[in-house]
Amino acid sequence: QNGFSFHLSLVQNDIIYIIGGHSLENNIRPPNFYKIKIDLPLGSPAVSCVILPGGISVSSAIMTQTREKEYVVVGGYHSENQKRLVCNTINLDDNKIEIVETEAPEWTPDIKHCKIWFGSDMGNGSILFGIPGDNRQLASDANYFYILKCPV
Predict the structure, then answer these.
(1) What's an example GO BP annotation here (predicted)?
(2) HSE (side-chain half, CA atoms, 13 Å) at 118
C-alpha cells in the first residue's frame, strides 16, 4: 500500500507478524494482520506474505511481553482523534496466533482526557506511559508519567 506504516511486530522463529498500521493516503487504521515467512535456503532467500483475519485497528500502540509466547498491546489510537483505551492479549502458538481483547486498566481522568500520550515497553510486562503536563495547566513543558504493570 502507498504511504502505509506498520506499528506492531512480533517475531517467532522464521516468521514476522505485523499488526495494525496507518494509511497516510486514506488516514485510516485498518485491522491489518500480516504473516511474513522468511526461508533462508542456500542461495537467495524466499519471502512469503499472507494476510490473516482477526487483526486489530491500531497505530502507535505499545506492546510488552508477559510470558514466553504471550504479549499485551496497550494504548495507541483508533483514529487521529480517538485514543484506544482497550488492551489486547496476543498468544503465539506454533501453528496459530490469537488476539483477544482483555480488561483494560482503570485509566486516570488525566490519561482518559488528554489528547496525546506516549510511552515505551519497560520489559517484564511493564509499560511506561507519559502525558503532557499542559493537561493540568501547571508547567506547560512538564510531563507526567505512569507505570502500567500487566499480569505475568
Answers:
(1) V(D)J recombination
(2) 6
Instruction: Identify the CATH number of the domain defined by range 4-149.
Output: 2.130.10.80
Burial of 62 per CB tally in 10 Å (0-12, 13-18, 19+)? buried
CA distance 46 to 2: 23
Q: What is the pTM of this model?
A: 0.82
In the chain, where the domains are located: 4-149
Mean pLDDT per segment of 10 residues, for the chain of length 152 residues? 74 86 79 86 86 83 91 85 87 83 88 86 92 66 87 74
Helix/strand/coil for 122: strand
pLDDT in tens, 70-82: 999 998 887 777 8
3-class SS at 133? helix
